[in-house]
């Protein structure tokens, strides 16, 4: 494998990681911002108020986007296996 092939595999892996984790991270960010605004408006500074809704939202988003994440990982593994079979790795 030359450096171009290694670069391609690394690029595909990083893109897959970013694409697969983006929905969960974006959802956690939105829920965290909403909770922060509610806490700032009501002046409630309860620590569990920040963690429990965020964890629930993360699990809900994970359940909804699991087929998308699985498809993304499957495409990456198919591409890498195709490179192995063709002798590119």
From TrEMBL:
<keyword id="KW-0966">Cell projection</keyword>
<keyword id="KW-0472">Membrane</keyword>
<dbReference type="GO" id="GO:0009306">
    <property type="term" value="P:protein secretion"/>
</dbReference>
<keyword id="KW-1133">Transmembrane helix</keyword>
<keyword id="KW-0812">Transmembrane</keyword>
<comment type="similarity">
    <text>Belongs to the FliQ/MopD/SpaQ family.</text>
</comment>
<dbReference type="Pfam" id="PF01313">
    <property type="entry name" value="Bac_export_3"/>
</dbReference>
<feature type="transmembrane region" description="Helical">
    <location>
        <begin position="55"/>
        <end position="73"/>
    </location>
</feature>
<feature type="transmembrane region" description="Helical">
    <location>
        <begin position="12"/>
        <end position="35"/>
    </location>
</feature>
<protein>
    <submittedName>
        <fullName>Flagellar biosynthetic protein FliQ</fullName>
    </submittedName>
</protein>
<keyword id="KW-1003">Cell membrane</keyword>
<dbReference type="InterPro" id="IPR002191">
    <property type="entry name" value="Bac_export_3"/>
</dbReference>
<dbReference type="GO" id="GO:0005886">
    <property type="term" value="C:plasma membrane"/>
</dbReference>
<keyword id="KW-0282">Flagellum</keyword>
<keyword id="KW-0969">Cilium</keyword>
